[in-house]
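Mods, move this if it's the wrong board.
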Amino acid sequence: MTRSNAPRPIRRIERASGAEIDPKAWWARIPAVAAVLRHGLNLPAGVTFLVGENGSGKSTLIEALAGVHGLNPEGGSRGAMHSTRATESPLADALQVVRTPGKRANAYFLRAETMHGLYTYLENLDNSPDGDLHERSHGEGFLTLLERKFRGYGFYLMDEPEAPLSFTSTLHLVAQLDRLRLGGAQVVVATHSPLLTALPRATIMELGEHGIRRTTWDDLELTNRWRLFLGDPAGYLRHLL
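Not the wrong board. Structure tokens:
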């Protein structure tokens, strides 16, 4: 399979013209979010990983990317009509996307923590081909839905997809991400997984007090901490227990 020459669907996100933002709002004070509001964020082709500690803004940005692109922030497609309890920040309302004109792109969002609600919504649709998702394990359902919905040229989002997956299943996800890249898809993934971020030719963006910066797998703080732990788990835990 050769890589598609189709341009990436989304070139950039940036603050919307005229958007009013309370600088004291919790979400506006996250350094990574503040950096996007000040400078915007260019989104490369292929697979991009957003990596950082809890509270660094990964999910906030992913949810905003879904919302500003017209996707359901709890997961699904543009037309998905399901909701449990809205917990998303209003960041999507403060952003705009710079799209590549021309070919219409597919789009889908998979969010690990709201998959049960998405499965139920899909199950109840008339003539749904996805009525079997609740009959599968969490991880099997996630990979099945990924194969069915993430197809061809498009803009695809995932929030912590490793959450329901075993080591072997995460390897299957790595392979699927590479197939999507080769097919011309643009994928943005928020993750804590050093296995996922090892995907060759992926872009890694590390979120933290510095804001957002590009890095490599070898220089990623996540990778370094796992190396230290796996090299001497007893010594690592001795400082905690």
